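=== Structure Prediction Worksheet ===
Name of assembly: unnamed complex
Input type: mixed (protein and possibly other molecules)
Chain count: two
Listed entries:
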Amino acid sequence: MIEVSNLSKTFGIRKVVNEVSFVVEQGDVLGFLGPNGAGKSTTMRMITGFILPSSGSVKVGGYDVVCDPVLVKEKIGYLPENAPVYSDMSVFQYLSFCAEIRGYRGINRKKKVAEGIEKCFLSEVKNQTVNTLSKGYKQRVCFAQSIIHDPKYLIFDEPTDGLDPNQKHEVRLMIKEMSSRKAIIISTHILEEISVMCSKTIILSNGSIVVNSTPDELKAMSSDHGSVLIDLDNNSSDNAVNCLQKIDGVKKIKLIAFEENNVSIQVYPENINNQIIERIIPELNKNGFKIKSIFIEQGKLDQVFRSLTT
Amino acid sequence: MKLSKSLFKVWAVFKRELTDYFSSPVAYVFIIIFLMLSGFFTFYVSHLFEVGQAELTLFFEWHPWIFLLLIPAATMRLWSEEKKIGTIELIMTFPITLTEIILGKFFAAWIFIGIALIMTFPMILTVCYLGDPDTGAIFCSYIGSFLMAGAFISIGLMTSSLTKSQVISFILSVVLSLFFVLAGYSPVCEVFTGWTPVWFIDIITNLSFLTHFASIKRGVIDFRDLVYFFSIICFMLFCNGTILHNK
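=== Predicted Assembly ===
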């Protein structure tokens, strides 16, 4: 369990992290969201013991990061921002060094390195010097480093930054696959990742926690949440809008797009618990509209993100 | 158990740093330049052959000056590069203490300079061929030179931790080392003679690498000289730790 309580960090007179508290337990994947400079990396650096907190405490597996840094660091796997790697070493040498410093020797070390290389699909490049690798490979090498000792706690600072869509997908799968056995903290800019990977979300803004909830709850905060999006094969939008307006429980209707043979309409209900869609479909059918598609909007994270952080 | 675990981590850092020297051209350029400079100064500036004595004092005399130029170049990247490419964040979040990292880096650089010193063995062969040198004095001089190199390295390592720019690290290291060298250089001492108390000049000259190196070069390894070099090393490494701890 990672327990962060009242964590603050001041650089000079600027308070970068302000009284941040949260708990991450085994099985949790905590997504750290926030605009640039919100204090995500600083918080992660304090949890991993890279910088000391100005006040507050971090406990990892029961040990305090300031009092027992080595014990804490043994339990954590950390992927720093921009995935730093020693550029003059080969991938194999680099991972060997990381395993060695984690206390693995001889056969054990070779086994750990081989596992890391296999898990992160690095076997093609294992004898290549790190600085000849592309950004995506470097990221994977550093990722391999963070999981080489099979840690209980994982902290990833923008793990998918600079990867192509396939690699992003692989990294997400890897994180998902590990998530049940570990406590994971991920920071990211990519909002879709939050809904794919995370079970909890924290939004930071100017160093303070703005929201601490789940991705679904976060989406529910969107003003679009629960609205119904309809595409109609129709030439006249007015008819459709008029027809929809008559339905019970409709609060607002927004015309989103109007092209030839296609009308997109968003219908906001008065109460999202009201199954308004069940009334819309028969009503439209009755009036002879052809429904091309219809679905209930879950809410958009980016909309919520913007409203909370600006 | 705890000690062996700790030594093992120091060993891991040591090995990485030492291979880093040799996996890039740095080590080879360094050793070649070191050998060329020491040969040039010994034979062409000090005229070892013309002096007619089978001894190496003329060779060792140049070591502080060669070290002054070259050792900062060998140590400047030790921390600066980690800071620049961000691997410092990696190594500082490994389960290893700052002391262990510093010791690993320090010993790697020290052994590297030791290797460069060993490569000067043709000098010994030359004087042995020419006559019958005092092998005891030569051995002591090598020890002294190695200890002095350690002091230079500790300074370079410390200045390297101050900045992520290797150039700044190099310059700071040269300036600080220059202070420790010049303090015992006779023209500098003369500036102080006559108008400052004797004890003051004593303190200044005793701070110098030259004074202590000269005393070892004579063929006696005095306990005080050992204490001197080791205290410089420990002090500088301690400063290094403090700087990084409070960054």
